[in-house]
Design a protein that fits this description.
Keywords: Metal-binding. It comes from Bacillus carboniphilus. By secondary structure, this protein is an alpha+beta fold. The chain has helices at 15-24, 67-75, 89-99, and strands spanning 3-11, 29-36, 43-50, 53-60, 78-86, 103-110, 116-120, 130-134.
């Protein structure tokens, strides 16, 4: 199954300062900004586009339960995940299962833009946080 880079997620402490950098230094455009208080997400998200490439800026909205807050505390701010778009998420999940690659089942969800997504288990990805997503 073909995989195409969809976006890169970047953990940030200050969303406004990060948006300013992407707009004024990189020449990017703010596509959307929203807050997700879903359990296991608890983040404010800004979608930036620079020359057709998207970056999700992720800031924790709850410093005790947000996985982004945990990530920043453990590893510092910076690249959080790399997302690959697949044609069909269900088929991709079956392929992963056949290959013995586990997913983090509790991360399976549909975001506000209709993107279905799930994270692969970093224990099976050489430590990288990888997201698979589709746009049904």
């Amino acid at each position: 199954m073909e995989k195409v880079l969809d976006h890169i997620g970047v953990a940030v402490r200050n969303l406004d300062e990060s948006i300013d950098f992407y707009e004024n230094v990189l020449g990017g455009k703010l596509i959307d900004r929203y807050r997700s208080e879903a359990v296991g997400v608890e983040s404010e998200i800004a979608i930036m586009e620079v020359n057709g490439t998207r970056t999700e800026l992720l800031a924790p909205s709850n410093n005790t339960t947000s996985p982004i807050a945990r990530f920043i505390k453990q590893k510092g701010k910076g690249v959080h995940h790399i997302a690959y778009r697949v044609d069909n998420l269900d088929d991709a999940l079956n392929e992963l299962k056949e290959l013995g690659i586990r997913t983090l089942e509790d991360t399976l969800r549909t975001n506000k833009h209709g993107r279905r997504l799930i994270y692969l288990n970093p224990a099976d990805t050489q430590g990288a946080i990888i997201e698979y997503c589709d746009y049904p």
